[in-house]
């Protein structure tokens, strides 16, 4: 039976009619041909469709939007783009258009974008000229990299320094010339960059010409008085600030108009100033001026040291007729601090020393004594009350000191140390609201004071870091109090104002009313939290997140154009990415809103007496600190506080104050003003003591005279 089945299976017709190998190959060939015909048909159809779309009126260009241009007109960009009227948007060769536009010397880069169905957007980025160079082909504009890119036209004004004496060889026809000595050109541009961000005594606009001799020595001419300034071979930052100091000194001494020349290469620490003599037949008088100190005594100097979480800022000033004149500044990244507290003494000392050295180089002096700002979540502030009896009818200065001491006699934690005892108001008998009761008559004197304390360990570490950096601490000042000295007006203090100093590690609040401090508070959130959020949200390094925050940050995402894009560096060597700027705004806004809301809650919940702190704020809120520069933070703060808000800039100082005209320097400048007031109070106290001793000596002398 099994054998029969097997035989029947072998005789199956399917096996008798199976295809041979040639037939299989033939079938496969037919299938391949049919597949090729079908694929070709599809491709041909797609090509036909694409060709049809390229001819369609639906994609005709009806508008071309050009943005980013200033020097090059839109008509010129349109001519370079060579986009014909009613050209098809789909058929445009964007690479060719980009190459033609970037062929213009003024254009650094071009971004082209199709806005379907009929708009073409052209975003250009122009080169920024920093100087002019004299070549055999005429004057050419130079960019920051030292590349000549466009000739100066006859109608343009000479608004930039002119570099002469460097050989520039002719290049191909129609191309800018090439400078034969790029190293010297780089040094010249670096010197001009110092002027662009440096002293008001020597701004870049006042440099008319920078000439180089055959041996490479530089001579500079100013725009307002073109006398020669011989710089020699040194065009470093130190040379620039030495020259700025000399010019400032000449302005101050009112000798600038008689200068015939200045030799900066005279001696290491001296310059030679030649002055014109008005008498006929007299030669030019020469005088060596010492650069270091410029005859300034150390006692005339004030130095503020702002030890922040993100930066160390040192500002140097001299005092002339009771006015503070800025003469130098040094800034260095803060390494070794976290939220205002020292976590690494060695790194902190090095950061302080670098900032001090930079300030000394600019100011031309040696810094030995500083006023130091302090902040951090360890800071506490509270109000206290004191009362004493008056022994005599008239209230003396000693009585005021006694009542303040009585008010400050409170129990504090052993690990805390008193930083400030700030009088708010005095009461004589039943008369309150007195600012200075000296000379009044009464039997009872009361005082309300605001006491600020801080961690004894943190204070000790800050003083130790300063001492290790060879600095003597003249005083430690709460940072928001120092900032208030620099940015608030007397009217704001009197009517009621809130100062919010948003630094890198903390946000410091101070409430003023009736001319006195009423409340202080420190929030442990600051600009570093914004940077950290960006770093995580955008997946970019912290350094790049900080740069993006400063350049493109915005506190209100709704105020950002959805078409604006930013280039975000990636981590681990990955390629940079293009992201919408609105994404960054959506990361920053919630964090800024959280910080401001916590400050607003503090103002609403805390009371001074029976009055809410916020009810004392009648004028509004003043923002300062680096984060106050964030775009639209003022508008967001007004929404949250429901009060007028402004950004506070330092004021009340002279000298080269353009270098400190930013909220980031408010604390350092305020430390100077605090130091000036502290010095004046000490001098007045010394004079009072001297007068008291004089009266006692006079009385003793009279008594002895009567006895004799």
List keywords for this structure.
708 residues; alpha/beta; ten-stranded mixed beta sheet; 18 helices; 36 strands; disordered N terminus
List the helices and strands and how they pair.
Blueprint: H1 2-10, H2 13-16, H3 21-54, E1 63-67, H4 74-81, H5 94-102, E2 107-115, E3 119-126, E4 131-135, E5 138-142, E6 148-151, E7 162-164, E8 168-169, E9 178-179, H6 182-197, E10 207-212, E11 218-222, E12 228-232, H7 237-252, E13 259-263, E14 270-275, E15 285-290, E16 301-307, E17 311-320, E18 323-333, E19 337-338, E20 341-342, H8 345-363, E21 369-374, E22 380-389, H9 397-407, E23 416-428, E24 431-434, E25 444-455, H10 456-468, E26 472-478, H11 479-487, H12 490-495, E27 497-502, E28 507-513, E29 516-523, H13 527-538, H14 542-552, E30 565-568, E31 577-580, H15 581-605, E32 607-608, E33 611-612, H16 613-616, E34 620-624, H17 633-641, E35 645-647, E36 654-655, H18 666-707
Parallel strand pairs: 1-3, 4-7, 7-10, 12-13, 16-21, 18-36, 21-26, 27-34, 34-35
Antiparallel strand pairs: 2-3, 4-5, 5-6, 8-9, 10-11, 11-12, 13-14, 14-15, 16-17, 17-18, 19-20, 22-25, 23-24, 23-25, 27-28, 28-29, 30-31, 32-33
Helix pairs in contact: 8-10, 11-18, 13-14, 13-15, 15-17
């Amino acid at each position: 039976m099994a054998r029969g089945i097997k035989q029947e299976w072998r005789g199956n017709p399917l096996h008798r009619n199976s295809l041979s190998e040639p037939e299989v190959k033939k079938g496969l060939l037919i299938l391949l041909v049919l597949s090729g015909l079908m694929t070709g048909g599809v491709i041909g159809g797609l090509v036909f469709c694409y060709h049809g779309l390229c001819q369609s009126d639906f994609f005709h260009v009806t508008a071309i939007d050009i943005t980013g241009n200033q020097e090059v007109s839109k008509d010129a960009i349109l001519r370079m783009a060579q986009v014909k009227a009613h050209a098809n948007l789909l058929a445009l060769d964007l690479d060719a258009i980009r190459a033609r536009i970037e062929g213009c010397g003024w254009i650094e880069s071009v971004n082209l974008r199709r806005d379907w169905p009929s708009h073409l957007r052209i975003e250009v980025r122009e080169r920024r000229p920093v100087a002019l160079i004299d070549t055999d082909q005429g004057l050419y504009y130079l960019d920051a990299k030292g590349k000549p890119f466009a000739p100066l036209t006859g109608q343009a004004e000479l608004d930039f320094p002119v570099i002469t004496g460097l050989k520039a060889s002719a290049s191909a026809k129609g191309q800018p010339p090439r400078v034969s000595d790029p190293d010297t050109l780089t040094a010249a541009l670096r010197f001009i960059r110092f002027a662009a961000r440096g002293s008001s005594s020597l701004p870049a606009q006042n440099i008319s010409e920078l000439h180089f001799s055959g041996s490479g020595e530089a001579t500079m001419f100013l725009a307002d008085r073109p006398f020669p300034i011989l710089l020699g071979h040194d065009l470093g930052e130190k040379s620039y600030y030495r020259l700025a100091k000399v010019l400032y000194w000449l302005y101050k001494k009112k000798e600038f108009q008689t200068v015939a020349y200045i030799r900066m290469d005279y001696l290491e620490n001296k310059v030679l100033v030649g002055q014109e003599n008005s008498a006929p037949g007299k030669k030019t008088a020469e005088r060596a001026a010492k650069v270091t100190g410029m005859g300034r005594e150390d006692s005339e100097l004030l130095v503020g040291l702002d030890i922040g979480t993100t930066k160390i800022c040192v500002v140097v000033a001299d005092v002339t007729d009771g006015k503070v004149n800025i003469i130098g500044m040094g800034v260095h990244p803060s390494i070794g601090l976290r939220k205002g507290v020292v976590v690494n003494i060695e790194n902190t000392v090095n950061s302080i020393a670098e900032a001090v050295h930079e300030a000394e180089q600019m100011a031309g002096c040696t810094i030995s004594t500083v006023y130091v700002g302090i902040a951090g979540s360890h800071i506490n502030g509270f109000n206290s009350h004191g009362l004493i009896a008056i022994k005599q009818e008239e209230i003396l200065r000693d009585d005021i000191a006694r009542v303040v001491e009585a008010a400050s006699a409170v129990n504090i934690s052993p690990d805390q140390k008193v930083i400030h005892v700030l009088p708010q108001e005095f009461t004589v008998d039943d008369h309150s609201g007195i600012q200075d009761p000296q000379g009044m008559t009464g039997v009872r004197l009361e005082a309300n004071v605001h006491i600020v304390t801080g961690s004894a360990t943190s204070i000790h570490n800050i003083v130790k870091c300063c001492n290790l950096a060879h600095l003597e601490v003249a005083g430690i000042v709460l940072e928001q109090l120092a900032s208030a000295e620099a940015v608030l007006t007397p009217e704001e203090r009197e009517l009621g104002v809130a100062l919010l100093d948003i630094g890198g590690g903390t946000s410091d609040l101070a409430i003023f009313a009736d001319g006195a401090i009423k409340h202080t508070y420190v929030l442990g959130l600051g600009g570093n939290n914004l940077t950290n959020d960006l770093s995580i949200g955008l997946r970019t390094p912290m350094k790049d997140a900080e740069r993006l925050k400063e350049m493109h940050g915005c506190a209100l995402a709704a105020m950002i154009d959805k078409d604006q894009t930013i280039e975000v560096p990636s981590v681990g060597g990955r390629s940079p990415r293009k992201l919408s700027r609105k994404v960054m705004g959506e990361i920053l806004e919630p964090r800024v809103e959280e910080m401001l809301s916590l400050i607003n809650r503090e103002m609403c919940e805390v009371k001074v007496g029976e009055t809410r702190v916020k009810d004392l704020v009648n004028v509004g809120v003043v923002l300062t600190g680096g984060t106050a520069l964030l775009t639209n933070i003022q508008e967001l703060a007004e929404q949250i506080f429901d009060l007028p808000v402004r950004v506070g800039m330092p004021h009340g100082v002279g000298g080269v104050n353009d270098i400190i005209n930013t909220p980031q320097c408010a604390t350092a400048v305020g430390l100077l003003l605090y130091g000036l007031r502290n010095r004046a109070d000490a001098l007045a106290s010394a004079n009072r003591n001297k007068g008291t001793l004089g009266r006692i000596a006079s009385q003793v002398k009279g008594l002895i005279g009567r006895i004799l």
